[in-house]
């Protein structure tokens, strides 16, 4: 369920930022959803190859920043392969990567998976208990 939420939210962030930023062009929400799927697959299969040497150089102290940087690089890579998605420059890709990271963090904190709760990453506190 969290995977579907992540993909939909990432697509919405990409599509929304494309509407706001003139340097980014996405043809439709379906294209944004395809970009989100490709971004997830590339992060899973290729991202670690790029992240690992960079994390070694920084002694794993800047892992979050490197993840955002690699996501921006992967967005530019997706831009090269898709005609219906364009990003002019690296800074808009970095802004989208930051927004996707923030949105993913919000999803993980608001709807934690069972594995996240068991590992101690987050606690499973019902929403009503948070309001009191």
Written overview of the protein:
The two termini are 27 Å apart. The protein is globular. It is built from 6 helices and 2 strands; from the N terminus they run αβααβααα. The model is unreliable at 127-132 (pLDDT under 50). By secondary structure, it is mostly helical. The protein has one domain. The protein has helices at 2-20, 29-57, 63-81, 91-110, 114-119, 127-131, and strands spanning 24-26, 85-87. It has a two-stranded antiparallel ribbon with strand order 1-2. InterPro entries: Phage_holin_4_2 (IPR007165). Keywords: Membrane, Transmembrane, Transmembrane helix.
How would you concisely characterize the structure shown here?
The chain crosses the membrane at residues 28-50, 57-78, 84-107. The chain is mainly α and 132 residues long.
